Amino acid sequence: MASTRRHTPTLKVKKPQVESLKGLSEGMTSIAKKNFELDYGSILNLLHVEIDDMALTTLAHFYDPPLRCFTFQDFQLAPTLEEFAKILGCNLEDHGPYVGLGEEPHMKEIAKALHLTSDEVSSWLEDKKNDRKGVFKGFSRGVLETKAQALLEKKNWKPFNAVLALLVYGLVLFPDVENFVDFSAIGVFIAGNPVSALLADLYYSLHIKYEGRRKGMLFCCVPLLQEWLTSHLPRKDSFVSNPAGLKWHQRMMALTEKDIFWYSRDLDGTEIILSCGDFPNVPLVGTRGCINYNPVLAFRQLGYPMEDKPDNSLLEEFILKEGEENPALLRKIRRAWGQIHKKPWTKKNCVAKPLYTQWVRERVEANRLPFDMVVRPLSPEPITMVPIESREKEQG
């Protein structure tokens, strides 16, 4: 009998080693912490996220490569710029997106961002060999942590905060080579806003693994993905405590759209980025490549209804892989981010109309899901999501 399951690569996530970073942050005064947050957002919160690697690797099995989302039995979820920005305490309008793929930061730029001298920063530079990509340039974890400790003892907060932030960028937000902060992470740090690059790296890493049917490690910010997933999972005690002892694949296969916590009021007042320039969706530049993402599939997470099957023209794919040269595309992406098209803020109502739900179910039937249904079958009729006000009261 033919399998009813979709083949997916076996992926793993690696928890960042953050104890030493937590130790450094615990030495900060309340004023230093406040100033850190003003300059770098809430990235220190990621050091305290409890990571469930099985939940995240199970989530990865639901990735739907052509659509850049996770497709479940009757709904879809897609990480968004706005959600990542809210988790990280970043304002998308404070700095432009990262578009520096392939560019090496200059030592003077790095020193200025760290509030240190060029001579000192240049003395830290080293090459790190890696079997996957050859030689990396950057700074070792040990050197940066030693400098941070010295600055902490002197209570020299401005450079201390900058060095600690760079450590978080290189070891937590953009991990690549173990215990090493490479130039790609440093480039995003200098740019000042990591949100678009983080979203790009997540989608890019998932897509490359699926395209090559390759098992291995997802290169993304694991604590951020955990926070995003947790924000949408059911809040009911029967799900959280899991008294039946179900495995994660059973729990996720059983989810329907009525179970999901769709929208956070923290996003009230946020204008949604729908597309950029001539792109029908949003082009993202990461530390390894470029890829599009489709906000139209995430409307419910952003407080808007899913009315119908999305227009195929709005889901147009592109990807620029690591090592590929396409200066014209990079120029087009940079220009596009100068012309952002937004959806104005309106009253929120996270409904899914039957036409959309039927489209999702038809896609599931054609492409299959990654695990067998063992807990709860599909509902016989599409379920229309109640308005968010009622939903919050129900789950509260």
From TrEMBL:
Which Pfam families does the record cross-reference, listed alphabetically? DUF7745 (PF24924)
Which InterPro entries does the record match to this protein? DUF7745
Transmembrane listed as a keyword: yes
Sorted keywords for this record are: Membrane, Transmembrane, Transmembrane helix
Transmembrane region(s): 160-177, 183-204
Q: Which domain of life is it from?
A: Eukaryota
**Sequence ranges assigned to domain DUF7745 in this UniProt record:** 21-365
This chain belongs to the protein called: DUF7745 domain-containing protein
Q: What is the lineage of its organism?
A: Eukaryota, Viridiplantae, Streptophyta, Embryophyta, Tracheophyta
